[in-house]
Amino acid sequence: MADKDRCLKAALVCAAAAMVIAAPFRAVSAEEEGAKPVYLKPAAAAASSFDEGEWAPDPNPMAAADGDFNTRWSSEMGRDNEWIYYDFGRQRTFTDIIIYWERAFAKEYEIQASDDAMQWKTIASVKDGKGEREPVRIPKTTAQYLKLTGLKRSNPDWGISVWEMEVYGPGNLNSGDLPIEQVFPGRRPREEVILVMEDPAASPGAIAAGEFQKGVNFTSYNEVDLALKESDAMLEYLKTLNAGHVCIIVTWYQDTLESMTISPDPQGGRTPRDEALSHAINKAHSLGLKVMLKPHVDIQSGEFRGDIPGEEEWFRNYREFILKYAKFAAKFNVELFCIGTELSGTPTKWEPEWRKIIKDVRGVYKGPITYAANWDEYKYVPFWNDLDFMGIDAYFPLTNKSDPTKDELIQAWEREADQVEGFLKKKGINKPVIFTEAGYASADGANKRPWEVASKSEDQREQADCLDALMTVMSNRVWFSGLYVWNVFPQEVESPLGFPIKGKLAEKVLAGWYSKAK
């Protein structure tokens, strides 16, 4: 570890209080009441709606009052005026609230109180919400119910989402209530995570010639979660799948397809900090997992990165971005580095720029490198022979059926494998091929458009059969050297329709294949 002077508190959570327009009487703090504040624990909760999207949490309003910063309430997407309220079981006296927002925060919201959950009185209005950790001082109020209503969302495509909403009041006016540390002894808010830039750990060994890469994509969209104990536990979980490799993804952003600037998440929170990244790589190495570092570029406006047209200025900025992580990969003994992902609009048109990037990366990183071409892009990449592995994000559409048989899926994978093999022979490419991404949602019809959740009907069998068919076919192709399944998150995500395989039928399928792979 580096010395203590290099400790950095995570910037995930903003400590500045929101501007509050309260009712026309003076706010009285718990200290002014002559008592230390106590945490007021709700007895029940209710919400206007719940998110039903791919990564939706459990539809449980009490998730925002359980002391657990891995659970949350999330409203239906795309709607204002959604609310959540707490029932405290009897009258309590409130003076302070702290809202821990997920990325989907409310820019404008109000706090209301009630004695019957029917007639509500507004006690505070926030007009310039900043998200993250947001303290709200309210006038001293005695009531049984407290409601948060989002009036304007930070992103028009999202709902609002809350990790925790903590309510406090003076101890001498709330008999029997306790400080929050006694109510939730294991509670650890995100802003209390201490990040340290660790010293590099030793690699478990280079990727050997002929070694099959038994990988999983480890995707973080959070500044600090790669440094959490939950992240460590998920890496340990990968060992139970017989995985030997992990692809750690770090994402920077540009505003639109035409933007020239690429930067860490300007809205805050979605780009892993270097300190957290160093911890995750070291943890993986300590478990004997070999690491691929795979930087991504995403578009704030929601378009697909493959439609980025590229310009000379864009490539200058992309070069700076990718070299930063190539140097990081070299310092932390990363075993494989990916120079780009699904940038389909650029390899042919900007071939000289890509060859410069390859040369520059090799100047700072001495390990093997790859590029992750989208499934419909790999035939148009002109620089495969300059790389060590040919990478494909293998989301090939397999059939037109929502419920294909295993044999039909195997036949579809034979077709795609033949296509790849024919391309290798035609172009004279003598490089091992890895699937830098491949995976399926546990939803009906996942095989038709594997890059998305195709329906709201859960189908674990189709997900398992698709992975089984992939490995049945590809394990017999001599040029196939590895699979990185999409995906797991550093913190466990409830995803009955999504890609994570933990606890699903596909989990045993993958573990079985990885146990046999050499």
Rg value: 25 Å
Poorly predicted runs? 1-34
The assembly state of the depicted protein chains is single chain
What is the CATH-assigned architecture of the largest domain? Alpha-Beta Barrel
Rough outline:
elongated
Q: CATH-wise, what's the superfamily of the largest domain?
A: Glycosidases
What is the H/E string? EEEEEEEEEEHEEHEHEHEHEEHEHEH
The third-level CATH topology of the largest domain is: TIM Barrel
Number of domains: 2
Record field, number of beta strands? 19
Q: In percent terms, what proportion of residues is strand?
A: 25-35%
Sheet with most strands: 9 strands, antiparallel
Mean pLDDT across all amino acids: 91
Helix percent reads: 10-25%
Structural features, described:
This protein has 518 residues and is of the alpha/beta class. The chain has 2 domains: 189 residues, Jelly Rolls, CATH 2.60.120; 306 residues, TIM Barrel (Alpha-Beta Barrel), CATH 3.20.20. The protein has 8 helices and 19 strands. Strands 2, 3, 4, 5, 6, 7, 8, 9 and 10 form a 9-stranded antiparallel sheet that branches. β12, α2 and β13 form a beta-alpha-beta unit. The two termini are 34 Å apart. The relative contact order is 0.11.
List keywords for this structure.
single chain; 518 residues; alpha/beta; Jelly Rolls; TIM Barrel; nine-stranded antiparallel sheet; eight-stranded parallel β-barrel; 8 helices; 27% strand; elongated; disordered N terminus
SSE layout:
Blueprint: E1 8-9, E2 20-22, E3 37-39, E4 44-47, E5 73-74, E6 82-101, E7 106-114, E8 121-126, E9 133-153, E10 161-170, H1 180-183, E11 194-195, E12 213-219, H2 229-240, E13 245-254, H3 274-286, E14 290-299, H4 312-331, E15 336-341, H5 351-364, E16 369-374, E17 389-393, H6 406-427, E18 433-438, H7 460-474, E19 480-488, H8 505-516
Parallel strand pairs: 12-13, 12-19, 13-14, 14-15, 15-16, 16-17, 17-18, 18-19
Antiparallel strand pairs: 1-11, 2-8, 3-10, 4-6, 5-10, 6-9, 6-10, 7-8, 7-9
